[in-house]
Input
Amino acid sequence: MSTTPLSITVAPGSPTQAAQSTITLEKLSYISGDYMLFLIEARDQYGNLKPASIAETFDVELTSDTTSVVTALTYTSNNNGTYTVNHQLTTKDSYTLTV
Output
């Protein structure tokens, strides 16, 4: 047996849990032509941020409340467990954002 103290490492668990993950929008009201920028933080069931080595996939969708048209949004990994979405809004409407 090794002598103490011992150095141990605890990594975030899998899979990512939606209830623990967060979305941070910079604002909720926009003007046509504005870019909607937000951050997704992928976290495990204990709230630990997932490491960059674990590639996550998400369905990020913006749905028109008037026409029900769904637009799939793309995201970029920040290589630290967070992901950035930057989407230009061009059509006046109310929308529902889902991840």
User: Anything to note?
Assistant: The chain has a mean pLDDT of 90. Residues 79 and 88 are 23 Å apart (CA to CA). The chain has one domain: 22-98. The two ends are 47 Å apart (CA to CA).
